[in-house]
Design a protein that fits this description.
mainly alpha, 2 strands
């Protein structure tokens, strides 16, 4: 059964899909790790910008989430912070 290294039940791990399958597995793992860390890095290190805050304010106003007065006061506060 385990007479030779890598030979289980008469199937050598390097024949067929054994070696290729392991290589594909590690390539997928490495790609997943690169994707995960690159995505986290861009979302975490994105700097806060006033133009982004203004665009969010404009979107909220367009959706009707805030009133005219609230929009104007927040817009003035953002322009003062520049």
């Amino acid at each position: 059964m385990f007479g030779q290294c890598g030979n289980w039940f008469g199937y050598n791990a390097m024949n067929g899909w054994g070696g290729i399958g392991m290589m594909i597995f590690w390539v997928i793992i490495i790609i997943a790790l690169i994707y995960f860390f690159s995505k986290n890095r861009t979302t975490i290190s994105a700097p806060y910008s006033e133009s982004n805050a203004l665009s969010i304010l404009q979107e909220r106003y367009a959706r009707g989430e805030i009133s005219d007065e609230e929009y104007e006061t927040k817009k003035k506060a953002l322009s003062k912070s520049r």
